[in-house]
Amino acid sequence: MKVIDLFSGWPNANLLPKSALSDAFAAVMTAPSIRDPALQYGPDEGYEPLRHHIAHWLTAYYRPPDPISPARICITGGASQNLACLLQVFTDPIYTRNVWMVAPTYHLAGRIMEDSGFAGRLRAISQNQGALELEGFRQELRKVEERARKEENDQPKSKPSRPWAKIYKHIIYTTPTFSNPSTLTMSLEDRENLVRLAREFDALIISDDVYDFLQWPSDDLQTPLPMNSKALLPRVVDIDRYLDGGPQDEWGNAVSNGSFSKLIGPGMRTGWAEGTEKLAYGISQTGSTRSGGAPSQFASAIIDQLLPSGFLQHYIDQVLRPAYSRRYHRMMLAIHEHLLPLGVTIPFPASSVTGGYFIWLELPRSVRASDLAPAAGQNHGVRVAPGDLFGVQGDPTINPNEWNRFLRVCFAWESEEKLGEGIRRLGEAIRDLTTPSSPELV
């Protein structure tokens, strides 16, 4: 039996713009004025033409009140690499109190936090019916600040003072739109209140905005996709730019962590960060960047060929969004047919617009995801992600089994034809765990 992989959050290879990338590579290599600088160390902030074109592209999609300046953009080696750089530049492992993660959270982010000295200090921001528990979060922040006051933890201890860096007291990590794994989209009210909390308690909100461009109507596959796509909601970084008169200082309290991985291919290892001009420059001053030059310099020159002509947005609108919409609806149809009759539910039904890569499922009370996932793989040839992967590891205030009745399935990696069969096999695995064994005849 060939395994069907509903675990891996990877883009399907057939959906990547390989031909366009090949042409872009050829264009770079045959133009010495582009090729030669692209093969050298680049400026710390990244390949300048790409910064300009990303700023224009983001302005057209997110439609902020004012155009986005290239000075707000720093080219990165992708969202994960940049998360590590943000922690290196803007945190101190002693002075920075905690990393707060909206739960459930991206399961591989915690390792990056721990590598920066925050092992044992990751804390969950809870949600209730999809809304952030911000008042409870505020109370926790107050307790932490009172403890820091008693311990006289009022200055960075490990990091020297540097003109390009500010050390924040707290880090808040979230994927606000089509979240991995819950698929939830944070409301505008929660985004605004989260920014206000970040300003009050000197926190930097790191938003992984990697799924924002992949959206479609959730109710019906026949609903036409809007041709002129625009963002569902303003990003947290946009809100920080304008809310209540704008940032309280030149650093701001939010950064948008973007990536081309889900759109062009993760192997390109290229993304961008957007924040205030001061914060964007600070990212570019990470030690590894200062030593080795801007990450993804050559890949940036290739990707840059896809932006000025409008190819990338056209490809997203005409290829990626329709394809992922079909996959989403195909999987949802199979879930309704094979899983809902077994007691599986969708805890956060999508609003009129959904997107991203994943569907989050709640299992019957008698089924634990930690039992189901290995059984589904071994006995039925389907890989799924158990919910307990997505808890905030080490948070002593959270029940470690809180997410063990949930499951994440991905519709991006496998071909559309395999998605229904994968869900059918998952239903068989659930049935195995919920059907009582027949008593032996004596």
Automatic annotation (TrEMBL):
Q: Which Pfam family is an annotated match for this chain, by its short name? A: Aminotran_1_2
What domain of life does the UniProt record list for this protein's source?
A: Eukaryota
Q: Which residues form the Aminotransferase class I/classII large domain?
A: 36-426
A GO MF label: 2-aminoadipate transaminase activity
Q: Which SUPFAM superfamilies match?
A: PLP-dependent transferases
What protein am I looking at?
A: Aminotransferase class I/classII large domain-containing protein
Organism, as annotated: Aspergillus rambellii
